[in-house]
Design a protein that fits this description.
It is a single chain. By secondary structure, the chain is an alpha+beta fold. The protein has four domains: about 100 residues, no CATH class; about 120 residues, C2 domain (Immunoglobulin-like, Sandwich), CATH 2.60.40.150; about 130 residues, C2 domain (Immunoglobulin-like); about 160 residues, C2 domain (Immunoglobulin-like). The strands form seven sheets. It has a five-stranded antiparallel β-sheet, with no helix packed on it. Belongs to the MCTP family. Keywords: Membrane, Repeat, Transmembrane, Transmembrane helix. It is a multi-pass membrane protein. This is C2 domain-containing protein.
Amino acid sequence: MADLLPRSYARPGMLPPNSEFGIREITPRLAGSGPSGAYELVERMEYLYVRVVKARGLKWSDEFDPFAELRLGGYSCTTRHVEKTVSPEWDDVFAFSRERIHAPFLDVFVRGRGFAKEDYVGSTRLDLSILPDAPASVQPDSSPAPQWYPVFDKKGELRGEVMMAVWFGTQKDRYFDSAVHADAAFPVDDKLAAHIKHIRYDVPRLCYVRVKVIEVRDIVFADKARVGEVFVRSRILGQAHRTRTSMDHRWKDEENGHMFVAAAPFKDHLNMSVVGVKNGKEEVIGHVNVLLDNFERRCDARPISPRWFNLMQPEGATKIDKYSAKISVILCLECGYKVLSEPVHYLSDVRPAARERERERKCIGLVELGIREAFLTATRTRDDRGSCDAYCVAKYGVKWYRTRTVTDSLSPRFHQQYHWEVHDHCTVLTVAVFHNSQIGDKGGLVTGDPVKDVLLGKVRIRLSTLETGRTYAYAYPLMSLHGGGVKKMGELRLAVRFSNTSTLGLFQTKAHFFRLAEALEPLSAASAWFYHVCRWTNPVTTVAVHIIFTILVCYPSLVLPTFFLYKFLLGMRNYLRRPKHPWHVDTRVSHAETAHPDELDEEFDQFPTTRPPEVVRMRYDKLRSLNARIQEIVGDIATHAERARCAVALLTGFYLMRHPILRQRLPDVVANFFRRLPCKVDCLL
């Protein structure tokens, strides 16, 4: 039976990846399914946490700005300094990966800003061997209470006390996100800490602002003897729109008005200026500022009433007595829409700006992401060897997470887990890997030049391709497209799981051409299969088709059951052959790896072109040949269309002039339906 079916009827899915750019399934040690936040998608990693709270009774000859310095083997980090006090409060938390610790003692120095390298107020030493190991089941609030530790100077005299808490914990500890991971290849100060620590970004709530100007009244020009054209300019921060110029000072025909984008909590102002125009010169007649938070909020299509605002004269203008110019305008915040701040094909959130609409759209599930580890190519050299300072950014919905920066490592181990509520199944989770260009000897913090972090690659996971409750663990390639072609920058290992919490809510040119060809491939395969049946290429198949056709002609009642049975069996076969892994970037779909070097060079060329005239002429000739082929195809299509039109006209004429024997006395179905359509003839006198 399988030979009777065209092979291309299989479910169209992702093309089989090659060995270099394809995703690869991994078998990590997972703790199994569990509640959110249990860190079962990543491995357990232990850290030495040091919380420096404050100090008291510090003794020094002069006023100084104290700060604390921690030294653990070859690692060093400092707290922020507090100006001119002997009882500073820092409350800074530092974390050292236990697998990188090779020193038995932790030294804490209290120093002052501007001190010599050897000078310090006092120091204390902690023996790490007496600290208990991290418990197997760590609670988020299991950190010990801080204690006072005496600090002594070089002569052994007491110089004050420092309150600290030191303990071994895991990434589940509540201080993990706020801690500065100080196990870097260079000293970590308060400026560097801001660029390597874990950060959570909350995406601002964006909303459309509609401004529709109705009319302006009682405006007075500086030259009172003239009446000129005016227009209204509206501005919110860097966004600006203007109406058309009008002689009657009315704009009721501008139906939709102007649209702006603003972010909550809407503390910005809308500036509207009435500008007069004469002989090509513009003159500001009046202006008004309106706070966005005072706008009416609309979540539906109800009409908004216009409001009147008094205009103020611009600064420096000639004062006019009894200035009473007014402007009528419709202002509202369109909270029922979603501002598309992401690419349409990779949306991670489709909820509207209105809080009320968010409550109506219930959470249908939970997506959990475990960023495990990466294996990267070198992006810089340090000590005559390749190095990379990598971090990841996970983006979904209104919460973005940036992992800590793992410095000086080509195989960084992150093992951080995040989760988001899912309100729409057809959304995309994006994870990107960056090289931190702000740190190091040539980083932006040292040179003072604005430097962007280097994107090494990104991974997109569409939630609709994930099975509910299943944990996916894969190694995703990190690819970068540049003038030399596609380059693999490494791979990122992720674990992702989608959990269902509500059962009611779930039920560029060449590339597009090949996608369309793949979508139409079943029709082409069916046509080729029927052609071979008619040509008796396989006699067994042709005889079987004759038998099935004879049965269906003799028993018409079996046509629909046979059709639905065929579709059911086809669906079952496609389901069993479905991809077992989530879809990922496939270089074969984009045809990036097979692109000609000249095509890539043309893609990355500037405008106007910077290439030699010979190259431009070659590309122009290539375009002309392609255009000639397209014209030939269009001509063939036009020829067939003209023949089809003649055939349709011929058949239509023969049908209308058919012999009365071939006609029936009953009225035509189409004409009968047309005559029964409603009309207002019954309303006439």
